[in-house]
Write a structure and sequence with these properties.
This protein has seven helices and no strands. The chain has 182 residues and is mostly helical. Helix 4 packs antiparallel against helix 5, helix 4 packs antiparallel against helix 7 and helix 6 runs antiparallel to helix 7. The longest helix is centred in the middle third of the chain and has 31 residues. It is globular. The model has no long low-confidence stretch (mean pLDDT 92).
Length: 182
Amino acid sequence: MTDKDALDALPGELLMWILIVSEVLVFGAGLTVFLSVRITDPEGFAAAQDMLDRTAAGINTIVLITSGFLAALANALRQGGARTKARFCLVAAALLGVVFLWIKGAEFASKAASGIVWDTHVFFNFYFMLTGFHAAHVAAGVVLLLLVAWRDHVDNIEDATAFWHMVDLIWVLLFPVIYLLQ
C-alpha cells in the first residue's frame, strides 16, 4: 500500500483528519502538563479532585459514548441509503451533546457557587481549561452534527462523525485523568 492509498482509505476529507490530529495533540499536551504539574503537589491535587462531581462526569461519559454510537449508526445508515433514520440518529447524537453541555454547565455553576474558580488551586486551572476547551469542542460538534443532519451527504456525515469521535476520545482520556486518577 502506498502513502497515497493510505490517505485515500481514510473516511472523509484529509483536512478534517489534520484538524482531528492537531486537536488530539493539543489535548495530549495539556494532559501531559497537567500530569507533570500534579507530580509537584499530589496531595493538593487529590484534595482538589475530591471536590469534583464524579457521578456527573460518569453520566457525561455514558452520554457521550451513547452519542458517539448514534453518530456511527447514522453514518452506517446513510451509507446504506436510510436517509431519514440517519438524520434522526444525527439529531439524537446532537441532543445528547446538549445534555453533556447542560451537565457540564451545572458542574461549573456548582463549583462557582462553592467559591471554586480557576485560581483556587492549580488543579482547577487545568480542570476548567481542559474540560472547558473540551466543552467548546462539544458545542462545535453539536452544530456540526445538526448541519450534516440537514445537508446529509455521505461525505459530510463521515467528516462530522470523525470529529464527534475525536470529541468522545478526548473525553475518554480526560475523564479518568481529571476525575479518577489519584
